[in-house]
Amino acid sequence: MLKLVLTLLFVGLVVVCNGSPLSRESSESPESIEAPMPDFFQKISEQCRNNTGSDDAFLVFMESFENAFKCVLKIDVDRFKTDFNQLTNATRTAFFTKYCAEARPLVSCFDDMPASVRPCVKENEFKYMEAFFESIPKTLDLACKNNGEIIFNMVDATRLKCFQENAKHISVCVDTYTESGLWNDDWNSELNQDKCSTLTNYRKCLMVPLDTCDLSDLIGIYDVSMNAMLRLSPCANNTEESTGETHHNNSTDVI
User: Fold this and answer.
1) Which of 120, 158, 169, 204 is the most buried (most CB within 10 A)?
2) Three-class HEC string of 102-119
């Protein structure tokens, strides 16, 4: 199950990188910058069926998943996109004060998800799911820190253009991961040292375009939840702490 939440996490990072409202302004076609999205729902369905002998548990999980995202969508998405597209240094403080305040209560939208997926996982792996969801507030705090500095950097035209030009590298990273044994093995199997290097190499792969485009701190969004889970696994020695996460741990300057 750790591999499931890790997959959701890395797909989420790709969405942050490629799915920014600003990305529509690029002259690149969507196909040229969109990374492939693995069919992880099929994986979950198979695991639920294997563990319980029916599809009922998967249906419960999907209902919880859908309810969570309906809850999250209480935020005015269209207004958010408009405000994000108009984001400048002058509007930055107001933007992140408003939307970070709106986002924090939405963390509770995911409260039912760990319990809903519990029948589909081994009991000793449930801890990873809990660690992932418990890390969400810290991830949000990091994204909001210093008036959204990490996210605001993506507004910079030079950085954005650079990232769009290097976005195909993200696809290569995802392809490499989904072709690995880590993705294709039984999702309820434990990680081992042989597979820990896959996660290390995946992060290194992501860092290439981020470093190239002066967006290195963005990896901190990935690291917070990743490290919370890996510290409970045989891959504990493979945790990485980004500059952004380090600064977050040493500072209380959060909106």
Assistant:
1) 120
2) HHHHHHHHHCCHHHHHHH
Q: Indicate if the alpha-carbon torsion angle 69, 141, 18, 77 is positive or negative.
A: positive
Instruction: List pLDDT tens digits, range 230-253.
Output: 888 888 887 776 655 554 554 445
State the number of CA atoms in the 13 A half-sphere of 55 facing the CB.
6
Distance CA 38, CA 2 (A): 16
CB-count exposure of residue 95 (10 Å: 0-12, 13-18, 19+): buried
Mean pLDDT of the chain: 80
Tell me the sheet residues that pair with 63.
none
Residue of 238, 250, 182, 244 lying closest to 210 (CA atoms)? 244
C-alpha–C-alpha distance, residues 11 and 174, integer Å: 8
* The pair of three-digit structure tokens given for residue 165, joined into one six-digit string: 């030009």
pTM for this entry: 0.76
Q: Map residue 165 onto helix, strand or coil.
A: helix
Cα(11)–Cα(222) distance, rounded to whole angstroms? 10
Q: What is the pLDDT of residues 61-109, one digit of tens each?
A: 999 999 998 999 888 989 999 999 899 999 999 999 999 999 999 999 9
